[in-house]
Specification:
single chain; 3-stranded antiparallel beta sheet; 61% helix; disordered N terminus
């Protein structure tokens, strides 16, 4: 189950010969460029590919992409979550885990035209990969701490208010499904509120 998230640049078109710098966001005093978003998006899709991903091509993005604003938002939130994790000293990635992830990124992206155009340094790949692993780990911790308990009474009240959805299906047959749905809904609402709080705390700005 994917939780919204999570739930956070130097831009280059797919066939560009040169890298062009463009500021697209800011977290406090930390400026995020389109290039950083592009590199981070590639890393994300290598380490955490969508379940339906079949292509071995890298995930290309940029200011001209329809999804670019979403990618910028994802990197901004990722940066915020990693910063918050550092304040609690929670969600750090082990050396072995980081090294394994970097090897996977370099092996997958090496030699690809798009990756070469972005010209990521070893230090950048390490920094962005580490930030991603820390953010993912902290979000796992955070979602666990935010998960609530949905009672049978809550589930039955929802069942009664939405009888038209369930028809003649007895409550006992769908009780667990309703509890799972309500639990996920509750968690997502809490995460949204937390993300909004974090955006204010770290003065997040999206320029796209």
């Amino acid at each position: 189950m994917r939780i919204l998230i999570l739930s956070l640049f130097f831009a280059v078109p797919a066939l560009a010969a040169n890298v062009v710098s463009e500021t697209v966001g800011q977290v406090g005093d930390y400026v995020i460029t389109s290039r950083e978003v592009q590199i981070t998006t590639v890393i994300d899709h290598i380490l955490f590919p969508p379940k339906d991903k079949k292509s071995t091509a890298l995930m290309e993005t940029g200011p001209e992409s329809k999804e670019f604003r979403n990618h910028v938002t994802a990197v901004l939130l990722e940066a915020v979550v990693a910063m918050e994790a550092a304040t609690f000293n929670v969600g750090t990635a082990s050396v072995a885990e980081l090294d394994e992830a970097i090897v996977k990124v370099e092996r997958t992206a090496s030699g690809k035209t798009y990756w070469n155009q972005l010209q990521p340094t070893a230090a950048e790949v390490k920094r962005f990969t580490d930030r991603k692993l820390v953010a993912k780990s902290f979000m796992k911790f955070k979602t666990g701490s935010m998960a609530g308990i949905v009672s049978n009474v809550d589930a039955y009240e929802y069942y009664q208010k939405n009888r038209s959805k369930f028809g003649s299906t007895p409550f006992a047959e769908i009780r667990d499904s309703i509890k799972t749905f309500l639990g996920q809904q509750q968690l997502e609402e809490r995460l949204r509120a937390w993300f909004e709080l974090m955006k204010r705390k770290y003065k997040v700005r999206n320029f796209i």
